[in-house]
Amino acid sequence: MKFMFAAAMPLLAVACAPLPPLDTSAGLVGVADATSPVSTLQAGPAVTYRNRAVQEPGNWTDLNNAQGPGVE
């Protein structure tokens, strides 16, 4: 019981300590400004869509090589 009390006292002391004041510098307040637009990027899809017809399974090696990076 003494061991638990000795372990809990520092935690209790830290939990009851007052918090330091928040930093309200201009850099932090400017970032949180809600009047500025959220994004200047155009809305649109993030990826391109390529329509593929349903077909029988083919050679996986050829399919993987065709979809690899740098190959269109």
TrEMBL record:
<feature type="compositionally biased region" description="Polar residues">
    <location>
        <begin position="61"/>
        <end position="72"/>
    </location>
</feature>
<feature type="signal peptide">
    <location>
        <begin position="1"/>
        <end position="26"/>
    </location>
</feature>
<protein>
    <submittedName>
        <fullName>Uncharacterized protein</fullName>
    </submittedName>
</protein>
<feature type="region of interest" description="Disordered">
    <location>
        <begin position="52"/>
        <end position="72"/>
    </location>
</feature>
<keyword id="KW-0732">Signal</keyword>
